Known about the structure:
Layout: H1 4-17, E1 19-30, E2 36-50, E3 52-58, E4 60-62, E5 68-70, E6 72-80, E7 83-84, E8 87-92, E9 95-101, E10 107-120, E11 123-126, E12 129-137, E13 140-141, E14 145-153, E15 164-171, E16 176-177, E17 181-183, E18 186-194, E19 198-207, H2 216-226, H3 232-248, H4 268-276, H5 281-293, E20 297-301, E21 306-310, H6 319-329, H7 338-341, H8 345-362, H9 370-393, H10 398-414, H11 423-441, H12 449-465, H13 469-477, E22 487-488, H14 498-514, E23 541-542, E24 545-548
Amino acid sequence: xxxxxxxxxxxxxxxxxxxxxxxxxxxxxxxxxxxxxxxxxxxxxxxxxxxxxxxxxxxxxxxxxxxxxxxxxxxxxxxxxxxxxxxxxxxxxxxxxxxxxxxxxxxxxxxxxxxxxxxxxxxxxxxxxxxxxxxxxxxxxxxxxxxxxxxxxxxxxxxxxxxxxxxxxxxxxxxxxxxxxxxxxxxxxxxxxxxxxxxxxxxxxxxxxxxxxxxxxxxxxxxxxxxxxxxxxxxxxxxxxxxxxxxxxxxxxxxxxxxxxxxxxxxxxxxxxxxxxxxxxxxxxxxxxxxxxxxxxxxxxxxxxxxxxxxxxxxxxxxxxxxxxxxxxxxxxxxxxxxxxxxxxxxxxxxxxxxxxxxxxxxxxxxxxxxxxxxxxxxxxxxxxxxxxxxxxxxxxxxxxxxxxxxxxxxxxxxxxxxxxxxxxxxxxxxxxxxxxxxxxxxxxxxxxxxxxxxxxxxxxxxxxxxxxxxxxxxxxxxxxxxxxxxxxxxxxxxxxxxxxxxxxxxxxxxxxxxxxxxxxxxxxxxxxxxxxxxxxxxxxxxxxxxxx
Length: 549
């Protein structure tokens, strides 16, 4: 086996030396429409019979940001010794491969191949200048090149003194200069003896205004064609809109008429949750007032606090109100103050929220727990944000990461609106909205005197749930001759001071419900420029390589 290896290496060396590019001329012509026309004249010496050459032209690049950047290349002409050649094109990796030659015919001796193609997106905007950063001869050729020449033609109206240029030669990453000079109105450069794997890269900058770069719309279209994932947020937006329309949108509420009494079997906390599909501190305060007005709780006024004294009521409680009463008495059965509930009541909120929504589902007002529906879509949206972050931080795929994260954000923004009510739920909501309208517009003076106090107490918890506490209490403040049976003032009864005490009660109850205990402490082409010391051989667009076949 060891004896065969030197023979194999010798055979490979002889095969490679049997194919040589004697002359390689590349003409780069910049057009005023910002297109680039490339003409390659490749004179190949075949010492052994072969069918032709394969020319591999890179057209698709993955940038460090993850963006796919693809050239628009149109093959205009392929010739062999001045005559139209037989050829075939196909894609391979990020290359356009042009296979020149007849499978049935072999060639030998000197054969001259000419390729001419037109390229869009070869120019990059750099502020006041436009740059062509092009691998005139790529570093992927498998054949030695005895003579390599590059010519750059610019539109005649471009002043020579305004053009900046630089060139590089050698293997990939080399910064060895390739000398360019003006002659006969064009930039030219020539070197001898490029070995396999060595190439030439040129960078030419022209002032803005001489080349008509594509507009923003065309560039955006190209970007979306190359990076379909950039449209992910748009598709997700359309998809979420359809899902919401089909499964998340409430039926129409219809005409709302004032209602003078609450819906039967619906407590004030449930009514407040039905309005916005969520349980918040205002609904909890409404539940407290409901316990009081139903005789299960007495509110004792202290100097800067309130004490909640348990009572033996007579009216039936909703499942939520029963759970709320148990949570209030847990820390201090004889009657807690809001100061005692601070940091404690917060732990009971998840269970209270679940109890409230389970009751609404059991009544047939929702097909599913709104909190669960909202959490499902919220988790899906957060998952999209996390996945986008993974693409961004771990895989350095900026655009894909941003697209996935934006899609997750779309789902997240839709999540609050995904809970849906049943037709029965809409009918009850219509009654709740009618009650809210009545509380907002009620003319208390028209009520009979004997009915004033009872009417005030019956609807006060619902006014709290609707955010109309101040309005409702102020309407009755001057008419209540004595404190309600469920309220024990600290001093003499002053009806006009009652609204302010109710506001304080609401504020303290909100603080008790929302005060959470502090958590414990816990330990190709890179898209770059050919200038500014960043250029190198093989660092631009184009180039590629080839081999015989």
